[in-house]
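Take a sample.
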Amino acid sequence: MDSAPVQSAALRQTAVDSDAVERDYALRLAEALWVEAHAEAFDLERGEFAQVLFAVGAKVNYGLPPGESAGRAQVESFWRGLHLQDLALASACALGRDPAWREFINRYRAPLTRAAIAITGSAAVGEELADSLNSEMFGIHQRDGQRRSPLASYSGRGSLIGFLRASLAQKNVDRHRRTGREMPLESSEVPAPPQAPEPPPESLACIETALRQTLARLESEERFMLSAWFLDQRTLLEISRVLRVHEATVSRRVQRLTARLHDELLKNLEASGMSKAAAREALGVEPGDLDINLRKLLQPSQSETFPERSAPAVTDRI
């Protein structure tokens, strides 16, 4: 793992123009985000992650209109608004790092296969489509003698699973275009199940218990932020005004909190007797299968805290 200071001369050349943001500050921030993203676990070096952050920011001018310059607050707010761990994982995979690929397969192979089967309506074709996507993401295609992975184009502005599902849907469209004039599949093909099998009651009970235990340890302000952000669909600005902190601070806290909850849920599930693989799979359970009222576990955020507005309909139960 790279232990050289992130302010190396080679890395400085990738930084945004000094008129837009102080380079030293941006590089120190990039290193802090490298830590928050757990990028070291994916064998992604500090400098490599910083280059990705600078490239993503420069591509869209840090979310600002063309011609405007991004200052410290805008750069930090933009970067912290990214799906940092997803971005680190995708970037490391694009570079061919083995630890990243092991995590990618563990995390996404099963849900992508289920999604592919649902899209195609065929178990065999769905599995083939999912395998094809995984191969493509690994970078089986080469250009100028170098392996090219579509994951290099992932920007972190949306979730990685969303990016992968969109890629899967496009591959299915391409498949139909290629096979449009071919004979239909034989009737002996195994049809896809209409939906994923419902998890066994004992697994649901373990998940519900682990979730209650995890949320019970939260401080009141943490419960407030989760309720306001996820249940009430409040904006970072609205939450920041209530807490009297900057928007970037709220974004940072929410990201750290959700990452911590994910890790604690895994630990609680493993402590209940689940294997690590089973615990990871359990976190992908359909929300409707659980009988938990989050609003009873989290501090409500609407009662006279925010001005009245018409909020989008959300479900309180998961």
User: Anything to note?
Assistant: Residues 247-271 form the longest helix (25 residues). The chain has three domains: 12-92, 104-178, 201-297. Residues 201-297 form one domain. Residues 5-21, 181-190, 192-197, 309-318 have pLDDT under 50 and may be disordered.
